[in-house]
Structure formats: C-alpha cells, structure tokens
Write a structure and sequence with these properties.
Elements: H1 7-18, H2 24-30, H3 35-48, E1 67-75, H4 80-91, E2 96-101, E3 108-114, H5 117-129, E4 134-141
Antiparallel strand pairs: 1-3, 1-4, 2-3
Helix pairs in contact: 2-3
Length: about 150
C-alpha cells in the first residue's frame, strides 16, 4: 500500500467506516472537497488496497440462533509451517469469522459461529482436536454480544 493519506483522507475513511453507503455528495458536505474529488479518492483507496472490502454486516439473528465461540489454540509444534497449516484450515471454514496470532500461553485465537452444539463439536473434533499441529485448545462460549465492530480508529 503506497498511497499517502492526508487528514482529508482520514475524514473520508472514517465516515466510510460508519457507512460505506454514504454518497460522495454527503461526504462533500462534511469534507471540504467536491463530490468528484471524493469519488476519485475512494476509487484510489479501493485500487491501492486501503479499502479491502465493501460488505453488509448482518444482524446474527437473521438466520436464527447461533452459538458464538472464542477458540484459543496452542500449537504442539512451533514454526511457520505448522502455524500456516492450522491458519489455512481454519481460514477455509465458513464458521470462522476471525483468526489472530496472539502472544502468551496460546498461539491462535479464533471467533466462530455455529448452528448448534453438535455442529461445534463436529468442527472442533475434525478441524482442531484432530490436527497434528494442535497441542491443546480451549473453547469459551459467548453469552451475549455486547459490542461488535470492525472500524479502525483514525
């Protein structure tokens, strides 16, 4: 990402994180640039990778009740190959929403959603417990989602 961002870029990006449906004209009312200049900047953000996706965040209840789980994974074997293999396997799973490498007693932290306890158990057995690079894991079941966001403070 080679794009140099100025304070106007930060204001535009901050507004787009609140709602990427904000029109260039609405942004021009908030940022001292013309709508066409804002559109050009937004195109360059997408082209350069500053904006990596335009998505709609759904209410999790739209598809019925789900179980959210925080998974802490400790690798049995340290090293980039074993970590990459576990990350890759988890990353291909549609249930996994977040994967982070962390420091401390565990190596990976994931957030995942499941339709039922049975689907969680099947996932855990096949994708985590059965993986030769996983030493141990801990599942923390989420009682209530208090805050959920993807915005980066600018």
């Amino acid at each position: 990402m080679e794009l140099q961002l100025d304070r106007l870029d930060m204001r535009i990006l901050s507004a787009l994180q609140e709602s990427n449906q904000t029109s260039a004209q609405e942004l021009a009312d908030r940022v001292p640039l013309s709508a066409s200049a804002i559109q050009r900047r937004i195109r360059s953000y997408r082209h350069s990778g500053v904006i990596t996706a335009d998505v709609s965040v759904l209410n999790p209840k739209v598809s019925g009740e789900h179980i959210s789980v925080v998974l802490l994974i400790q690798l049995a074997q340290q090293g980039p190959v074993s970590a990459a293999d576990v990350r890759g396997r988890l990353g291909r799973s549609p249930q996994v929403q977040v994967i982070m490498e962390i420091a401390g007693a565990y190596d990976l932290m994931c957030i995942a959603m499941f339709e039922s306890m049975e689907s969680f158990n099947a996932f855990a057995d096949a994708q985590i417990a059965g993986h030769p690079s996983v030493g141990r894991y801990e599942a923390i079941f989420v009682r209530r989602r208090v805050k959920f966001g993807t915005t980066i403070p600018l």
